[in-house]
Every structure is written in C-alpha cells, then in structure tokens.
Amino acid sequence: MSGTNSERELIAEGPAIILVEPQLGENIGMVARAMANFGLVELRLVNPRDGWPNEKARSAASKADHVIDGTKVYDTLEEAISDLNFVYATTARERYGFKPVRSPVFAAATLREKFKAGEKTGILFGRERWGLNNEEVALADEIVTFPVNPAFASLNIAQAVLLMSYDWMKSGMDDLEETRFQPIEQNPSTKEQVLGMFEHIEEALDARGYFHPPEKKPKMIDNLRAVLSRRAFSEQEISVFRGVIRSLDRFPRKWPEKIVPRQKKASDSGETEGNDSGE
Amino acid sequence: MSGTNSERELIAEGPAIILVEPQLGENIGMVARAMANFGLVELRLVNPRDGWPNEKARSAASKADHVIDGTKVYDTLEEAISDLNFVYATTARERYGFKPVRSPVFAAATLREKFKAGEKTGILFGRERWGLNNEEVALADEIVTFPVNPAFASLNIAQAVLLMSYDWMKSGMDDLEETRFQPIEQNPSTKEQVLGMFEHIEEALDARGYFHPPEKKPKMIDNLRAVLSRRAFSEQEISVFRGVIRSLDRFPRKWPEKIVPRQKKASDSGETEGNDSGE
C-alpha cells in the first residue's frame, strides 16, 4: 500500500533497534523499512553474518535509505548498548530468571516515558533461527514478549520489529482512534432538509401508485420514513439521495398491470425538476 | 523467534482476511503466517495472479498449513464477501468519499463486538503495487488505515495483515499488559532478611578495612544501606546476593598498602561460613 507523502516531515526519534548477529540482508532491510514506517531511525547491528554495507538490505528496505545509511555495526552486544540507559530484550521463549516480563504496550509506554526524560533506550532482537541467548538477555533491563497464538508463536525478526515499532508510535498518540485522514467533512442535515427529502420521494412514489391500497398510505409512509431516517443523513447525503430520486422520477415506468395510478401529472411524461426545496 | 507450543490449543476464529488479486505467493504465505500468529484462520483470495494452490505460499507460511489448506479462491470480490455481514477496506491513501475512516484499534474493537454478536466479518487488502481501487473500497462498510510515519507510509501486504491481526488479538485481551509468561515467582523479603544481608556484607567489609577512617563508618553504612535498599529485594535475590558476599568473603585479599585492618578475625584465613542468619 502506498500513501507516502514525501513533503511531510520525516519522524526520526525513539529507541535504537539492535539486531544481534542478523543473517539475511533481506531481513535487515525489512527491519529498516518497518522502523521507518513508525518513525524510528537508529539501527545497530552486532556482528552481521554477511558484513556491512549489504546491498540486499538496501534493496529490501524499500527506500528507507535514511535508516540504512545511519546503521552502525559493532563487534559485541556490550559495545552496541554501552551508551544506552535502558534496554529491552525481545523473546518469544519463556526464560528462567528474575527479569520483569512486559507486554509490547507496557514496554512502549516505558520507552516513551524514558524518551521524554531524555534517556537513551534500545530494544534487542535476536538471530533469525534462535533469538537471543541467555547471556544476551541478561544484559537487558527487562524482557518484552508479544501476545501471540500460543500454538503458533513464531514471528520473524522483521515482523517483531514492526510490531514493537508500531506500539512505539501508538505510545506517542493522544488518541488511538485518530486516523491520518478523514472522510469528506459533512454538515448534519436539518429537519427541514430531511422532511423535504421525505416529501420528494413520497410524491414520486405516490405518482407511481406505490401507496396501495390507499388506506394503508399513512402506515406505509411511517415505515418508509423509519427506514430512511435510521441513519442521520448529512446535507451531502441528502443531496446525493435526492439526485437519485430525481433521476428515477424523470421518466415514468410501465405500470404494473394491476396497479392503476390514481393521478397522473404532466411532469411524469418528460423531464421534471421534482420537488427541489431544500437542495 | 521461536516459542511455539504445539500442545496448546490453536486459536482459530475472527474475521476473514481477503486479499484482492495478490501477486506473489511469498506474500500470501507471509499473510497466512501473520494470521496464524494472532489466531486468524480464514483466508480468501480474489483472482490470485499465479493461481492456487501455490507452493511458494506454503513455504513462506512457515507451517501455517491450517491457514493455507483452508484458503478459498474467488473470481470476484463480490463473491468473496457475499456471505459476510460487515467488511473493512484497508488503505494508506486518502480516499475521496463519505465512508467512515477508522484506526486499527477502533476497527479491531468493532470487529470483536460483531464477532461476539455472531456476525461474519472480513478485512480487504489490496494488490502489492497499488492496493484497492475505488470500486473495491466502495464494497466495504468502512475504511481502516494505519497510523504511520507520513513521510514513509508504505506497508507491504503481509505487514498490513500482521498489524491488523495483532490489533484483533489485542482487542480480545482484558489486560493489554498481560504477558504469556512471567519471571520466576518471588517472595518479597522481610526486614529481618534485609538486615541480615546488611550485617553480612558490613561485617565482611569491616574485616577488610573498608570503613576508613573509623569516624566515617556510620555515614558510610548509611550510604551503603541506601544503595542496597533502593530496589525492594525479593527473598531469592537476597539469597543470590548473600552467596556473592560469602564467596567474596571466603579468602582475604591482599591489604592495600595504606589501609591497615583494624581487626583480623580467625575466619579471615581460610573458609568461613560468614553470617548466614536468614538464609
């Protein structure tokens, strides 16, 4: 899905993402892309198998070049985290230990607080095949693990970074129901506009013998109005709806054999403006 | 990251994921895997470019075979959604229209409510290159869009499914801070245990001339106890910590030249049991 607006300011802040001994350049690239999607920029690699720079990583990053270009490489995990104040280790496996285990939502909120307080933070992700070893987890302050289907818990490294980055971005939003764009702004309709629409359609229907038998007309109008007013129409929607009625009303249809129109107006044969009040 | 427990019940419920004209088998497979991670199972494909079944999809699904095996293929989107009650369309591009635009958190909550009410729901995802067209979006009830970095908004199809599936799973959790496993359960320590530890380390330090000059000893003990009690130790942590002290206390070190021990105990030369009360 596209939708990138390159004129918008690039968000570039937050925790460092630290990949320990990543193997495939494609995965490193997908990690960079996931980071860029959610405004992270600082990628650190500990002893990447295929060295660095890595053209496959750049290609898989889908133009997250600012992340790839800024990536730093370290020989050991200790060096990679030496300047950080607080570090999470991600793991899907239960670990035998004392370290607090957090959900991504909790971890993201903690990272956001520390970010606001000026602390430098990082999140460790392990190797493709077997994650982080216990000595590496021991270097972190706390553990973060994802709420997954227990019978199908395996996330790849880029997916894990994507989810953590997503929760990081959400932790900075005041309103989780906020969206980047909204439907066309619409004005609530007034009752006058709604009644104008009702009269418009009822007149058009009446002209075609819809209200049959005549003694049921009041009840049929009640039902019709109930159906049409279930949603609160906006002004724009009323305008669209009345356009539909006007169009249907333009030429008379053949009468069903048994229903004889009670009245036939001049405007039924040819173009009519209908009842346009309120439009 | 592994961590799958195949003895645990497989979660298999929730909205159908509908891919419109997906191109690469690898992407379909990654979608199946992401669905399985978060307990979704119903995958529908509209006119997949390379046909179905697709071995590349199965391979990329990393054993999400239950999703791959149950995948259904349709000629048109209309057929693919005909049995559903409510459908979301995902898009990253702003659309010109009246349809409500929702965040994934809002959409997941809506889908969860409808699921509990017994309604059948689905989420549409578009082609790799250009997503859904306007006619396809028009078939959905509402739009869902992801909160992404506006300057880097492009998510691939498997990432978009992963995020939506993740929010679906979270919408079913009572506590977003819940995690699948927890650290070893620990008992809070009592003050007697904490004081026993303080006395243990202070005795060992005192034996080595740490409290120098002697008139500063009370202040030094205050500081030491402040450092050691900043965290609320658990019983287990006290046990570990006293093991460390006991080990350090086992053999005397060489005295620094200028510091002469004020007292030298028999236990300093050779193995000592230290002050073990409370262990």
Topology overview:
The structure is a homodimer of 279-residue chains.
Chain A: E1 16-20, H1 25-37, E2 43-46, H2 55-60, H3 65-70, E3 72-74, H4 77-81, E4 86-90, E5 101-102, H5 104-116, E6 121-125, H6 134-138, E7 142-144, H7 157-171, H8 191-207, H9 217-228, H10 235-248
Parallel strand pairs in A: 1-2, 1-6, 2-3, 4-6, 4-7, 5-7
Quick structural gist:
By secondary structure, chain A is an alpha/beta fold. Chain A contains 10 helices and 7 strands. Chain A folds into 2 domains: 156 residues, SPOUT methyltransferase, trefoil knot domain (Alpha/beta knot), CATH 3.40.1280; 78 residues, no CATH class.
The CATH H-level homologous superfamily of the largest domain in chain A: SPOUT methyltransferase, trefoil knot domain
Please name the two chains that share the biggest interface, counting residues whose Cβ lies under 8 Å from a Cβ on the partner chain. Answer: A-B, 74 and 74 residues
H/E element order of chain A: EHEHHEHEEHEHEHHHH
CATH architecture classification name of the largest domain in chain A = 3-Layer(aba) Sandwich
